[in-house]
Amino acid sequence: MKKQTQISKGLLLFLFLFPVILFAQETITGKVVIESTGESAPFVNIVENGTNNGTASDIDGNFSITVSSLPARLRVFALGFSTKMVDVSQAGAITIQISESTEALEEVVVTGLGTSIKRANLANAVSTVSSEELVGNTSQTTVDGALYGKVTGVNITASSGAPGGGFALRLRGISSINGNNQPLIIVDGVYVNNVEIPSGLRFASGGNRGNEENAGNRLADLDPNDIENIEVLKGSSAAAIYGQRGNAGVVIITTKRGKGGKTKISFSQDTGINVIQNKLGLRPWTAQSVEDTFDATERQRFEDAVANGGLIDYEDEIYGNTGFITDTRLNATGGNEKTQFYVGGSYRDEEGIIKNTGFDRFSVRANIDHKISDIFDFTSTTNYVKSNSSRSFTGNENEGGLSFGYTLAFTRPWYNLFPDANGNYPNNPNYPGNPIFVRDQAKNEDTNNRIIQGFKLNTKILTNDRNRVRFLVNGGIDYLANETYVFVPKEHQAQVGGQEGFISQGKNNFTQINAQAIAIWDHDMLGDDLDLTTQVGITYLDQEANLVNSRGSNLSVGQTNVDQSVNQVIDQFISNEEDFGYFGQIEGNYKNQFIATLGYRLDKSSRNGDPNKFYGFPKASLAINISNFEFWSLEAVNQLKLRAAYGETGNPAAFGATFTSLGSSNIGGNGGASVAGLNGDPDVEPETASEFEIGFDVGFLDSRISLEATYYNKNVEDLILSRSLPASSGFTTETTNLADLKNEGVELALRADVLDTDSFYWNTGIQFYLNRSEVTRLDVPAFAQPGAGFGTGLGTFFIEEGQPVTQLVGNIDGTLTQVGNVEPDFQMAFNNQLTLFKQWDVSFLLQWKKGGDNLNLSRFLTDLGGTSPDLETPEGQARLATPANAERFVEPAGYVRLREAAIYYRISSDNIKALFGDTVSDIKLGVSGRNLFTITDYSSYDPEVSVNGGAGLSSGIEVTPFPSSQQFYLHLNVNF
């Protein structure tokens, strides 16, 4: 009986999904043309209204459709055109004219896991960045680096200036103290891994932590030129539908897709150089200052060096390389009414400002859209990437003799450290490392092989006058195979008599699988005045990581592998995380006047204390388009929208935080009890952020001028903290829910088409945003955040109730004192696009960061070494006379920077045709630059800095970073 019931249900479902028209009676043929030009309109949809029966015009605009009876009504629609209803009373050939529509082309924004909405009806402040905004001005190495100054509410900090990047993105402030602060990255529906991978370098250099190893984050594997647009869901009110993964915001990336019609081929070549952005320069030594700083013996060495060729500028020797950059891209797009494709490949090779450093990335992409039938359509996105980087040795260490900044701080320019005729490098008499030897002989490299595969299957279950029901299944896999390699020869000065050579090899595999199934129902009510969109679904995420690091010391002569070392250590870390959730959302749109959304997400995660417990995350929003009401008569203001939204998101504990781990130390001799390291909490709850935002959008003069204004208040409860415990407790650290914090801020975005004539076009945009944070609850005494500074002696992030989570605290005369705050007072960006005589494109992006402090411990080191460039000045001498504490090294980190600037020339179509006939359609030549100038009071290489990588409280602390660079480019773009 059960089997028969299942067969009956299957038959009913088959009949429901695959209705057939048994008695077709009449055929209508014709052509679709564009009303304004009379040109054929290819791939326009023609559907018998109220049915699934439909077709599409071919490449010449011709179509044929068989309808059940006459008269019939046809619904004609396509992206970029107004929908048109055509009544046909008799069979035969007809011509249908369709008109281009600004409204139809209006930007849409993701509001659910399977739906989108026109920006004019959006109730959240969601920022979007188009392909032209992202890479249209200048060449970009990484996606996150390309976002500088282009999104309100986003603070970007460079954790390294090395090629291949290293960036921390913070959306609306700090969302977690101990946990993840990087947003969730989704590329074409695939949850993408943006991990930083430690290499084991710290075991050679003496660096303290894995997050100080100058690693890049793996968003660097994605070619920015493949991207069509980016949507940034900055707050919980927009990201609530993503549940436990949305606490730090969500970045949704859509890559380029094929377009029907003639196959078009595009070739682009960028060629450029990398140079150091800001050199500090040598201290202006004199014989007397050398003697005053050191002694008479050093004075004699200084005078001998001056007499025999001069001083050596080791900063220029290490950071003065001119790196050559090439970025080559070739892609093709095309298709027909059934299948569209975008295929392409790119290769970027970028040398760094330090000799033997660089980054290269080979990327191949194939995006396919296929219409199986009127019921089914399928999308596939495939991206293979192979990238390599060599990042050398910078950042924090403890007397390892490898980090260039450390070494240069103590290296005196009257000593010759270059190799002799036999290739032997002298020892550095002032520090345990010769920077020239390290640059030439030591290695710090990584290699990545990556496949990102996404898919989407869309099923149209029902389509009629009032209802449109579809079922969507999508997801994908992100597989990353990473290898790291660190090698320090045994001849290195610090290795002699110590490790006698060091090598570290890592093999790290990451697999991330996500899938979701969504049912979506669009329903028209009240005579089409009320549109309802309902979606329900389930989602699944599985993350697996296997990190193996093999290290060896005491190497055999000339050997460069772990097997040939005497002392060997192998570390392995394996993790497996699973998330599962249900979600539902309903959106209502009444006459484009009132647009409301209600949603709820239920999630469980293996990282929670109870892996089977579901946590709920609600969302609600309302937008009121006052300008769409009948009483509105102010023609100059075409849009006035008020909006409000509320949402909640979560963040589970880090992997393993729920368990108590046992260390290897023994108490009481052999056979004694083990000392516990981490005191886990099996009842730990996820961190939960609740955010309320309000705002308004105004459009003037047909939106030639627009203003978006937003205020948000975001509260994060049940923060998961790790704190140190006294040894008497039997544990070293404890992780549990201990605190709350809040972020509140303002975001403003003004855009204007200032001029739009045949010979001159000028578009400008101004962005302004600020954030304020505060720890609102702390159930333990205030403490220095582990791993986020260097103790209260030199300065650290300090977690204290009633104070900003971004404060820097130091011990000043025995009192813990706030000496700075890394959070800016505000940030602004000024973006301009100009077109002159339809052939010249000029653009620039100016960024202003007001306020915010850095703890400049690079200067602490150069002061110790006596090499700070300003020590000849009264200010420098006064600084040396003050205690070497955090207050002395905190500096203002505000700046004004010309982030991007470019000039392009488009060759006229007449000249192209004269030279190439119909083979080439467009040619564009250009020059551009990045980081062209910076105005700042900050005394080091770059006020955007982080010694701690992209995790946790990462910004505002500097210890001898890889300096940032300027880039200059020549561009050639050709379309066939």
From TrEMBL:
UniProt entry keywords in alphabetical sequence: Cell outer membrane, Membrane, Signal, Transmembrane, Transmembrane beta strand, Transport
Localization (cell): Cell outer membrane
UniProt keyword annotation of Nucleotide-binding present: no
Domain TonB-dependent receptor plug: 121-250
Its membrane topology: Multi-pass membrane protein
Family in the record: Belongs to the TonB-dependent receptor family.
Full protein name: SusC/RagA family TonB-linked outer membrane protein
Organism, as annotated: Aquimarina rubra
